[in-house]
Write a structure and sequence with these properties.
Layout (H helix, E strand, L loop, with lengths): L9 H9 L1 H6 L4 H38 L9 E2 L16 E7 L3 H17 L5 E6 L3 H16 L6 E6 L13 H12 L7 E4 L4 E3 L12 E4 L6 E5 L5 E6 L16 E5 L23 H5 L20 H8 L1 E8 H22 L5 H12 L4 E4 L3 E2 L11 H5 L4 E2 L5 E2 L16 H10 L20 E3 L4 E3 L2 E3 L20 H13 L5 H33 L1
Parallel strand pairs: 2-3, 2-5, 3-4, 10-12, 13-16
Antiparallel strand pairs: 1-7, 5-11, 6-16, 7-8, 8-9, 10-11, 14-15, 17-18
Helix pairs in contact: 4-14, 6-9, 9-10, 13-14
Length: about 550
């Protein structure tokens, strides 16, 4: 084969045409050159096609966003910093999602559900399931099934890591597998290339990608319907974050990096900071922080014995350490700071607080010990339909009854949380919002999205959701739901909307009841279709 230099002058190339190439074409190996030329032509065509696609995406999501300046007129905003726009969801490519499970069928179906929701959401980074304490047969069965899924997936996003059990002795507290399993994963895995890691629970499904930005290029806007919440709107005029207005401002760098972390705001977070004081809750009256953190730790409060130069106040704990999944931090912080301390503190916390949430308290105390302050947001999930706390992003779901039609006229009712859904399709208003974001495998066929509302990043289905003779409870889902002859869950959307209409007409029903029932309707009309869509994709990947 002839070596051709692409740095030759035009004259040299012309001479090449007239001599070398012609002679080579006439040689017995001319078929090889034809193959090389066709290969090069293919590369040029592929590059041209990708460029055209990128420009079309930029026109749809970027240039239009720059031309719009309607920053939610009723709210007071602070202007965004100047940043360059990137393709929709591109930054999620640098976020490695990880979650921890045991080997049970109960958490196995949740893991498959989570993966297909992540893929459908448009998240571009990988996802790793850390599995702890498997027997030989259990591990082989999980490996075979995951290989079938990943072999059919172009993206190769799904990964597995098996660890020994880190369950604590006694009552076999298995949730200690989370810090122990993740620490094992991050110290034994050499292929983590992403700069940020997001830890989520297996009973979460994604609606949107998990992004590393924390207000980068965003405007802060006071919400109209709740004075205690603020939204952060990006340059494309899309709401990305929802936070309590009394929280400290977002960190200056406004992106996940070493020393800067973010997470879902949880109400439980700061309770430990009052341990041993007069205001301590029952479970923390006798809780000894010094026994957990040591005498010189910043996690100690004013009443703790020790010689720490910094003492964590209840206010500081509530503002920075009241965090739960989704947890997002830099890979270096996870490896060298968070996981070593979390793993160390886990048995110490459980020894004094032998309850379900011990691993969450161990995490928040570890964060205080290393002084890694989390930027808390309400927008990473919705979960408890009955909560009136602003730590979850139910505000965006409660706004479903106020939407805009094709003429930009305000219209809607409680039924909007379900209208347009089917057993394997999401409600019309949700599709409109997803199309507005531009993420994932969703299409609402060009409907009006100019004033589309926001959506939480995940649905955390750790509760029981019941309405209109429908129930979704994770412990009631068959462990073998994902199988080749599996049947989808039934969903009677008409029945749910009929009940919502009756509820709306009921003048004796309280505003609280209407809110809770419509939220339950929302979860039913999203979890069931999403689960059924995951089943369809699973069957296409594994069974065909």
């Amino acid at each position: 084969r002839q070596k051709i230099s692409f740095k030759k002058s035009a004259y040299d190339l012309q001479q090449m045409k007239q001599s070398s190439c012609i002679r080579f074409m006439q040689s017995p190996k001319r078929s090889d050159l034809i193959k090389i030329l066709l290969f090069l032509i293919g590369i040029l065509i592929g590059t041209w096609v990708r460029s055209v696609v990128y420009l079309l995406q930029l026109d749809q999501h970027g240039i239009k966003g720059l031309l719009r300046n309607d920053r939610r007129a009723e709210g007071k905003s602070s202007g965004p910093t100047n940043v360059s726009l990137t393709p929709i969801g591109e930054s999620s490519r640098n976020v490695h999602v990880v979650f921890s499970t045991d080997c049970s069928g109960y958490q196995h179906w949740q893991s498959i559900f989570l993966f297909y929701s992540l893929r459908r959401s448009g998240h571009l980074g990988p996802v790793t399931r850390v599995v702890s304490g498997c027997k030989y047969r259990e591990e082989n069965a999980i490996r075979r099934e995951y290989e079938s899924i990943t072999n059919a997936s172009i993206s190769k996003q799904l990964r597995l890591h098996f660890t020994p059990s880190f369950a604590l002795p006694g009552k076999n507290y298995k949730y200690s597998n989370k810090p122990g399993g993740l620490h094992h994963w991050i110290t034994h895995t050499k292929t983590i290339k992403e700069s940020a890691i997001a830890l989520i629970d297996p009973d979460m499904v994604l609606l949107r990608p998990i992004m590393p930005e924390l207000g980068k290029g965003m405007s802060r806007v006071q919400t109209v319907s709740n004075p205690h919440l603020v939204e952060y709107i990006d340059l494309n005029n899309k709401v990305q974050l929802l936070r309590q207005s009394n929280l400290p401002e977002l960190p200056p760098s406004s992106v996940i990096s070493p020393g800067i972390a973010a997470g879902q705001h949880f109400g439980i977070g700061g309770l430990w900071a009052s341990a041993g004081t007069k205001t301590a809750r029952k479970d923390f009256i006798g809780f000894n922080l010094t026994a957990v953190c040591g005498s010189y730790s910043p996690c100690l409060n004013e009443e703790s014995e020790g010689q720490s130069s910094h003492r964590t106040t209840r206010e500081e704990a509530d503002n920075y350490f009241a965090v739960g999944p989704v947890y997002i931090a830099s890979t270096s912080d996870w490896k060298s700071r968070i996981l070593p301390k979390w793993t160390e503190f886990m048995p110490r916390v459980h020894a004094q607080y032998p309850k379900l949430l011990a691993e969450m308290y161990a995490f928040t105390i570890a964060a205080a010990d290393i002084q890694l302050k989390f930027a808390l947001s309400s927008s990473y999930m919705v979960s408890d339909a009955s909560t009136m706390s602003t730590t979850e992003s139910w505000l965006w779901i409660d706004d479903y009854h106020v939407v805009s039609n094709a003429m930009n006229q305000s219209t809607g009712s409680l039924r909007n949380v379900c209208e347009g859904a089917s057993h394997d399709s999401l409600p019309a208003e949700t599709l409109r919002r997803l199309e507005n974001y531009g993420y994932g495998r969703y299409n609402n066929h060009g409907s009006n999205t100019n004033s589309a509302g926001a959506l939480p990043t995940t649905l955390h289905y750790c509760q029981r959701y019941t309405f209109a003779n429908h129930t979704f409870a994770k412990r009631k889902i068959p462990h073998d739901f994902f199988r080749c002859n599996g049947e989808p869950m039934k969903l009677d959307v008409d029945k749910i909307m009929e009940e919502l209409d009756a509820l709306e007409r009921n003048t004796e029903a309280s505003a609280f009841r209407k809110k809770v029932d419509s939220r339950n309707g929302f979860m039913l009309c999203h979890l069931i279709p999403l689960l059924n869509m995951a089943l369809e994709e699973y069957q296409a990947d594994v069974c065909n």
